[in-house]
Write a structure and sequence with these properties.
Helix content is 31%, strand content 17%. By secondary structure, the protein is of the alpha/beta class. Strand 9, helix 7 and strand 10 form a beta-alpha-beta unit. The chain is globular and about 45 Å long. The chain binds 2-phosphoglycolic acid. The site of 2-phosphoglycolic acid (PGA) has 6 residues, from loops.
Length: 242
Amino acid sequence: MNVQVYKDPAQIGKAVATLFAAQVVKNPDCILGMATGSTPLPTYGALVELYEQGVVDFSTVRSFNLDEYVGISRSHEQSYYRFMFDNLFSKINIKPENVQVPFPASENLEDDCAAYDAAIDAAGGVDLQILGIGHNGHIAFNEPASVFPFGTHIVDLTQSTIEANKRFFDSIDDVPRRAMTMGIGTIMKAREIVIVATGADKADAACAMINGPVDPQCPASVLQLHPAVTAFLDEASASRLG
Ligand code: PGA
């Protein structure tokens, strides 16, 4: 795993946005893997700037998002679908029909999961995926477990993730209890992966991901096995690396 340490989240945002823009310039028909949460916001802000400067054209880009809550509508202000339009898609020229966010809404959620993996495969697979990391080492909603889940699946959120996400909802009772998420196998199929960790509260998770054993108790540690991963850390999240 290639590890790069930057001063602060804004610097990381610029660096990762440049990587994404370079990917699009090199291959205008590429497939981008997108993430939600606070971590990618500086990257999305910097990507919007590059778009406004005329540096990058998203008109033939397609994208797949990592995950979505079960049980809230797409127009809900905390849906990840809405997050992506509010923070990126409505600010660049990506075509709405070219973006996919998991949509766990049918009678049979397992079918939705299988269809999502099939859609990624049919599109040719993700060229460049951005990830954040949870305090417990999760990536997307793949929580610590005894095995690495392979494909897209439905998960029960852990109490720590519900706690971490309650800041976005009126109360903890409003936080959805389940989500649909790409599996570890789905994520590992991406040709190139960028994982971003910022803030001192991510220092333990970043250290376990980079220096710990490959262990499903720290889902992000699986990235040590991927041939093209770069971890972007700020000084605070890199403080335990030694
Ligand atoms: P955050 O979430 O970016 O809001 O810290 C990251 C994650 O839980 O994957």
